[in-house]
């Protein structure tokens, strides 16, 4: 299994465990409340969305990665297209980051 596929399946597991928030408003709320452990932004998200999320994550010191497409993030988090998702569980967040680096 490639790193991307492994990371996507970890996102799927986290989602089924209820440890994922998706969509701009939910991601922003999770990060600002201190619950967000990792934010993923789709590579095909708009430049404006990427900048807004990156600035927010930098300010709140939440790790962020540009990863996958809107379709992939949506499919693996159990939703329609998603430009950003936030993982709420430290263990899942570390697993996703580690599998991306393979």
Q: How does this model look, in words?
A:
There is one protein chain. The protein contains five helices and four strands. With 102 residues, it is an alpha+beta fold. Helix 1 packs across helix 4 (70-76) and helix 1 (3-16) packs antiparallel against helix 5 (90-100). It is globular. The model has no long low-confidence stretch (mean pLDDT 92). The chain has helices at 3-16, 24-32, 47-60, 70-76, 90-100; strands at residues 20-22, 38-41, 64-66, 84-87. Strands 1-4-2-3 form a four-stranded mixed beta sheet, with helices on both faces. It starts with a helix and ends with a helix.
Question: Secondary structure elements and their pairing?
Answer:
Elements: H1 3-16, E1 20-22, H2 24-32, E2 38-41, H3 47-60, E3 64-66, H4 70-76, E4 84-87, H5 90-100
Parallel strand pairs: 2-3
Antiparallel strand pairs: 1-4, 2-4
Helix pairs in contact: 1-4, 1-5
Summarize the structure.
This protein is an alpha+beta fold and 102 residues long.
Looking at this structure, what is the CATH superfamily?
Answer: Ribosomal protein L30/S12
H/E series = HEHEHEHEH
Q: What would you report as the Rg, rounded to the nearest angstrom?
A: 12 Å
- Count of separate DSSP helical elements: 5
Distance between the termini: 10 Å
Number of domains: 1
Structural class: alpha+beta
Runs in which pLDDT lies below 50 for 5 or more consecutive residues are none
Estimated share of beta-strand residues? 5-15%
CATH class, please?
A: Alpha Beta
CATH architecture: 2-Layer Sandwich
* Spatial strand order of the main sheet: 1-4-2-3
Query: How many beta-strand segments?
Result: 4
Largest sheet: 4 strands, mixed
Proportion of helical residues: 40-55%
Globally, the shape reads globular
């Amino acid at each position: 299994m490639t790193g991307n596929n492994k990371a996507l399946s970890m996102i799927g597991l986290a989602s089924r465990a209820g440890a994922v928030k998706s969509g701009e408003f939910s991601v922003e709320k999770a990060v600002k409340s201190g619950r967000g452990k990792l934010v993923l932004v789709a590579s095909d998200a708009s430049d404006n969305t990427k900048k807004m999320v990156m600035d927010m994550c930098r300010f709140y010191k939440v790790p962020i990665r540009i990863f996958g497409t809107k379709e992939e993030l949506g499919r693996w988090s159990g939703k329609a297209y998603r430009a950003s998702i936030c993982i709420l569980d430290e263990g899942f967040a570390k697993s996703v980051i580690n599998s991306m680096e393979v």
